[in-house]
Design brief:
The complex is a heterodimer. Chain A is an all-alpha fold. In chain A, helix 3 runs antiparallel to helix 12, helix 14 crosses helix 16 and helix 20 packs parallel to helix 22. Chain A is globular. Chain B is rod-shaped. The longest helix of chain B has 26 residues. Chain B is mainly α. The chains are: A mainly alpha, B mainly alpha. Chains A and B meet through helix 5, helix 6, helix 10 and helix 13 of A and helix 1 of B.
Chain lengths: ~550, ~40
């Protein structure tokens, strides 16, 4: 990072935060602080929803995943547009008419307080665990570009987010997200165009696609079905739809975004905008990863993209021999790539051989560092950005990544604070306090969850591909939570005990699936949800009706 | 709360249908893209 990059980074991030706080002035009641007084327009909510979902993980890990595994991850989002339509038809009008602060408040209106409390606690556990992961991703960024320790970077990021989130509430978050999302889209376009521009002139964009495709990276649709294949057309449409229904319909970090809408129409439009924009955005991010792959086919990358791991293995006795193999494998792959149109098989063999040597490098890093399952996927894109992008653009892309991280963390700690105060504190611990008391309690809870995120981020750095870790964690709980919302919104006969036991049964089914290894995690949402519905409906036939 | 019509296509049903048709077209384009370069 050079001086001008720092100027770009500080101006964009600082400017956006100050603008968000300025727009949020006057958030002096709990309604304004937690729901923006229900005044937000659809375009602000739409980009805020996208920004909350598109974390730094989206930039760092997804591009790296395309480099390693190809574009098939895009199928994860195929069910999202269907889910958005379903939520626009059902959840949006129900939540608006129920006039709730949290999605779980509605469960008490429909069932009773124990169902609301159970689901609130599941949310707090799941989102509380994930928020540390969301914070550890930008820590990786700052560690790479600043050379700071990961501990210092998580504290720096966490404190920045806590300040504007605790001060401005959901309105500051929404407007900050809005501009951060615009910067993200611009940064993404810049990264893609620059990656294409940096390719050798004789290769170009189409040549890069041929090289990436030859190595099996251009695989956005996989039609073959397997229960254990994480990303194929069917798991994407069905599993992805259930996950999106759970995330956007039952997760307070998203529901709170569209609860701020000034009308049902505004909230619906914000979701439908996501239905249209999300897939192309993910496609472009993954395509960027493929172009980076092609770029590194012609420009030799380090054996390992994580600098610390690379310098550590260089001291090992086996390294000279491994380095010689790596150099030879790179030269062979590059030569084969230059000849790909005439002999594709030779290129594929050379690409596979190169991957074997890189795998050996990872195994050596595992041994030297004592890190089981060493994985440098999250460092690939950062290495490209910081090493090859021109001055100014580095600052812009890093700013997009940090903005993405901050918008996600802000949304998450804001939602955790809202559930803690509305569903637990105000409901059970202090029912009759003044509005100003709850406002300050919400600010305190925001700071608490921010500090909690900083602490848990210390344990989240070595979890392989962070994007998969976050989605896996969500899948443990989303199916059960979605199931109870389906019972609440679409059935009339199911009572509170049937719903309560249904959720517990759904969670038991999900954990059984996980520990038995019977299915990939995308199916947890489907199966968990179906178990809750089946058990809830089954028990409703024996549950004694409450007197009217 | 008043349920207003959407700003485009006249009814919510038409807008939802348009979103789902868009999804089908997108899947077809992704499939074609994959086939073209693999």
């Amino acid at each position: 990072m050079r001086f001008f990059d720092w100027v770009v980074l500080l101006l964009t991030l600082g400017g956006v935060i100050f603008y968000g706080l300025w727009r949020a002035r006057g958030s002096n009641t709990t309604d304004k602080y937690l729901r923006a007084g229900r005044t937000m327009p659809w375009y602000a909510m739409a980009l805020s929803i996208m920004a909350t979902q598109a974390s730094a993980i989206t930039f760092i890990s997804t591009t790296g995943q395309a480099y390693v595994d190809g574009m098939r991850f895009v199928q994860f989002y195929l069910g999202l547009p269907i889910a958005m339509v379903i939520l626009s038809v059902t959840a949006v009008p129900i939540f608006h008419r129920a006039n709730v602060y949290t999605a779980y408040e509605y469960l008490e209106q429909r069932f009773d307080s124990k169902v609301r409390l159970l689901v609130s606690i599941l949310f707090l556990i799941q989102r509380g665990l994930a928020v540390g992961l969301a914070l550890s991703a930008p820590a990786i960024v700052l560690t790479v570009i600043l050379g700071w320790s990961a501990e210092v970077t998580t504290v720096f990021m966490g404190v920045t987010v806590i300040i504007y989130t605790a001060m401005g509430g959901v309105k500051a978050i929404t407007w900050t997200d809005f501009y951060q999302m615009l910067i993200m889209m611009f940064g993404l376009a810049v990264a893609l165009v620059t990656a294409i521009w940096l390719l050798p002139t004789e290769v170009g964009f189409l040549g890069a696609l041929e090289v990436a495709g030859g190595a099996g990276k251009i695989n956005p649709i996989v039609t073959a079905f397997s229960w254990n294949d994480r990303y194929n057309l069917w798991s994407g449409i069905f599993g992805g739809m259930f996950l999106a229904l759970s995330y956007f319909g039952c997760d307070q970090s998203q529901v709170q975004r569209y609860l701020t809408g000034s009308s049902i129409t505004q909230s619906r439009l914000s979701l439908l905008f996501n239905a249209v924009a999300k897939l192309p955005m993910q496609f472009v991010i993954l395509l960027t990863g493929c172009i980076v792959f092609a770029f590194f086919t012609y420009n030799q990358p380090p054996l390992l993209f994580q600098k610390h791991a690379q310098s550590s293995i260089e001291k090992a006795a086996e390294y000279p021999e491994l380095k010689a193999r790596y150099d030879a494998a790179f030269a062979k792959r590059r030569a084969a790539a230059e000849n790909i149109s005439r002999d594709k098989t030779a290129y594929q063999e050379a690409a596979a051989e190169f991957e074997v040597v890189r795998k050996d490098g990872s195994l050596l890093a595992e041994r030297v560092l004592g890190e089981k399952g060493f994985n440098d996927t999250n460092y690939i894109f950062l290495n490209f950005v910081t090493t090859y992008l021109p001055v100014g653009l580095v600052g812009l892309v890093i700013s997009a990544i940090l903005g993405a991280a901050m918008s996600t963390i802000a949304g998450e700690i804001n939602s955790l604070a809202t559930v803690s105060i509305v569903d637990v504190y105000r409901r059970y611990l202090n029912k009759n306090a003044h509005d100003q008391h709850y406002l300050w309690a919400a600010r305190f809870a925001t700071a608490f969850w921010g500090i909690y995120a900083v602490v848990t981020a210390q344990f989240a750095r070595n979890m392989g591909s962070l994007v998969e870790a976050v989605n896996l964690l969500g899948s443990f709980f989303y199916g059960g939570i979605l199931g109870v919302f389906v019972l609440a919104m679409y059935t009339k006969r199911v009572g509170p005990w049937a719903a309560f036991i249904g959720v517990l049964a759904g969670e038991a089914a999900i954990f059984t699936l996980h520990f038995s290894g019977m299915a990939s995690f995308l199916w947890y949402n489907v199966i968990g949800c179906l178990v809750v519905i089946a058990v809830g409906l089954g028990l409703s036939f024996v549950e004694k009706k409450q007197p009217a | 709360m008043i349920d207003e019509p959407p700003p485009i296509l006249g009814t919510w049903l038409r807008l939802y249908t348009a979103v789902l048709v868009y999804l089908v077209v997108l899947i077809a384009l992704f499939y074609w893209f994959g086939q073209a370069w693999t």
